[in-house]
Amino acid sequence: MLDIKKELPELPYDKKALAPLITEETFDYHYGKHHAAYVKNLNGLIKDSPREEKSVKELILEGHQKKEAGLFNNAAQHWNHSFFWHCLSPNGGGGPEGQVKELIERDFQSVAQFKEEFSTLATKLFGAGWAWLAQDESGKLEILPMSNAHTPITEGKKPILTLDVWEHAYYIDYRNARPKFVESFWEIVNWDFANENLKTL
């Protein structure tokens, strides 16, 4: 699992590396403005308080439990975005291999069936949010469509992969054509990262 600090992380690739599927201009806004704003807001909310000593994950759980929308939304969106950048790779795409392939075939019958279900849920998620592949306590994989800043962390589940379907993730490159953006995800999905996130069963 990534060690996510209370700062804007470096991208794991150059901003031009995923073009034309995700362009440098999109990264300038999505990463350079939206993600950076969540980090700035989070640090502003916890400045000069005991919360400065807490991890991002702890702040997500505390904000969720205490229904503090500002704390939860900024901490969760920072965590979600930091995780999302690693779900993409210029060397990604193709089919999964190793444990993630075995578990997808076990829990979704086939890779093709999994991709269809994930794409459908990501496309149809109303408004803003995230499509997650997560693993529950028993090791079973499931697809979670989650609105706004929500994350499997608050459900006690382990994030494996995610796709950001907030409009700012794709509007510059795809305008309102979310299905085309979702389709492009499979060309740059980082299956190696998914394998790293899986529990050892």
TrEMBL record:
The keyword Oxidoreductase is assigned to this record: yes
Annotated positions binding Mn(2+): 30, 81, 164, 168
Domain of life (superkingdom): Bacteria
Keyword Oxidoreductase listed: yes
EC number: 1.15.1.1
GO terms for cellular component: cytoplasm
Record-linked PANTHER family: SUPEROXIDE DISMUTASE, SUPEROXIDE DISMUTASE [FE] 2, CHLOROPLASTIC
Protein's UniProt name: Superoxide dismutase
Source species of the chain: Psychroflexus halocasei
